Amino acid sequence: MIRALIVALAVSLAGNVGLGWYSQVSTRNAELALANAKADQREAVIQQQGDQINTLQAINQRHDALQAEVHQVVASLGDLATRNVQRYERLERENQALRTWGDTLLPADLVRLRQRPAFDTAAAYRQWLSDTDQMFATTSQPPDEPGLETRP
Question: Which residue in 138, 137, 131, 136 sits closest to 116, CA to CA?
Fold first, then answer.
């Protein structure tokens, strides 16, 4: 009977030890599962951060390419602006030369050719032509252009 009691006590003790061991194993398994879940979550975060880094690197490369293109466009626009300023200055000089030329007086013969009355009929025009001497003879010198040689 004592033996039965010792066996029962041993079985009970073994059951308690087994139950404690099982409890520790289950706790450890739960902790391990939780640690694995956290590790998976961290790996997902690391993967996401790696993807973000790759995206940012691609964006940075695109930015550098666009910045180089902008520098080229700015340089070409600077050249174009320089050419436009030079063209403007050239046109201003030409305009000044044209103004100077335009400000010179026309010869008297040309002024007289532009001076004529308004005519109502062709007959009045012919009469005006026959009444006035609008042109100089070819052998005479016009009065406002001295220095021109007449041809013999």
Answer: 131
**CA nearest neighbour of 27 among 35, 38, 16:** 35
Question: If DSSP codes are grouped into helix, strand and coil, which group holds residue 114?
Answer: helix
Q: For 69, how many CA atoms within 13 A lie in the half-sphere containing its CB?
A: 6
Residue 81 corresponds to which tokens in the numbers above? 């602006």
Q: Which residue has the tokens 């002024």?
A: 111
Comparison of pLDDT for 66 and 18, the residue scoring more: 66
pTM for this one?
0.41
Q: How many H-runs (helices) and E-runs (strands) does the chain carry?
A: 3, 0
Task: Name the residue type at position 24.
Answer: Q
Instruction: Using alpha carbons, select from 11, 15, 12 the residue that is nearest to residue 23.
Output: 15
